[in-house]
Write a structure and sequence with these properties.
single chain; 338 residues; alpha/beta; Rossmann fold; 5-stranded parallel beta sheet; globular
Length: 338
């Protein structure tokens, strides 16, 4: 994560003229940690550590209240937050929690934040879209998605296990296999039936796998598989083929990419060193996963001495005249009179 904090960069435009680009953290961030069908201490880490590395000085965390704990935040979430030094935690969830972070709640001392990050369901994702402009957001990280590009060389049980692992998040989770092998597709289907029936959240998994958002897609070749994936823009993309790097070279859009049989999405969910807060709903086509950079803003610092300004004064006057904004030019020439 430290690698995601760029150092200041200075560009010398000419004698006496420099531009410095520096990266400034936001002052206050709001972290959303889901807590509906499961408890996610990993999401505390994935949200908080990048914010802290970026240098955010004030952090508020929200997570849904838990009935079994009297409406309090789950103690595992509180424990994870405490270990990371976060002591401003609110028991609130869903779209309302996103609004509370964006606009603040004076009655409970919740001050508005400048950036809101974290995954959630479709309502959380929709709320983040609504508040964008009042506060910044990382991405619309909604219901989970996995897309696996695999060919005949892949292990069908590995692929099926990975599809099931993401389907257990939510009945609306999307699990897709894209392959150029009908025979491989049949083997994965058989493995899915066995694994879905044996897992703890079998009903949830079967609902997700059987929903319109999940599918096994047959394509002519792996180039077509990559094209399909780019159009879809999945949150998680796995590539398990005879030549993973060749497929990777054709990939443009994905939240995170997992290469080979030993890199399941579960690795990224917990311990790969990457972040599991990723864009969903096709937003990987234009946005990225959470990182320290999500809490940083590039700022340009301009320094010109008198002679450097004199060197460009005539051109500024000419440009301001062309745009019929003469006061812009006057703000330069006034410095050289008398």
């Amino acid at each position: 994560t430290v690698a995601q904090v760029p150092p200041p960069a200075e560009t010398r435009i000419g004698p006496g003229a420099t531009i410095v680009q520096r990266w400034q953290p936001v002052e206050r961030a709001g972290l959303y940690v889901p807590g509906g069908k499961a408890v996610y201490p990993s999401s505390v880490v994935m949200n908080a550590v990048p914010a802290q590395i970026a240098g955010v000085s004030s952090i508020a965390l929200v997570s849904p209240p838990q009935r079994e704990f009297g409406g309090a935040v789950h103690p595992v979430i509180l424990g994870a937050a405490g270990l990371l030094g976060i002591d401003e935690v609110y028991a609130m969830g869903g779209a309302g929690a996103i609004g509370a972070l964006a606009w603040g709640v004076e009655e409970i001392g919740l001050e508005p934040v400048q950036v809101i990050t974290g995954p959630g369901n479709i309502y959380v994702a929709a709320a983040k879209r609504v508040v964008r402009g009042t506060a910044g957001i990382d991405s619309e990280a909604g219901t989970t998605e996995i897309l696996v590009i695999a060919d005949e060389s892949a292990n069908p049980r590995y692929v099926a296990a990975d599809l099931v692992s993401q389907a257990e998040h939510d009945e609306a989770a999307a699990s897709l296999l894209v392959t150029d092998s009908p025979a491989f597709a049949e083997r994965v289907t058989a493995e899915l039936d066995e694994l879905a029936g044996a897992t703890r959240h079998s009903e949830r998994v079967r609902t997700a796998l059987g929903g319109p958002q999940s599918a096994i897609v047959l394509v002519d070749d792996l180039a077509a598989a990559a094209a399909f994936s780019n159009a879809y823009g999945p949150e998680h993309l796995e590539i398990q083929t005879a030549d993973d790097d060749a497929v990777l070279a054709d990939i443009q859009n994905a939240g995170a990419i997992f290469i080979g049989p030993s890199a399941p999405v579960s690795l990224g969910d917990y311990l790969a060193g990457s972040n599991h807060v990723l864009p969903t709903g096709g937003q990987a086509r234009f946005s990225s996963g959470l990182g320290a950079y999500s809490f940083l803003r590039p700022q340009q610092v301009i320094r010109y001495d008198r002679e450097a300004l004199r060197e460009v004064a005539d051109r500024i006057v000419a440009l301001s005249g062309a745009e019929d904004l003469p006061a812009h030019g006057e703000a330069v020439t006034v410095r050289f009179r008398g």
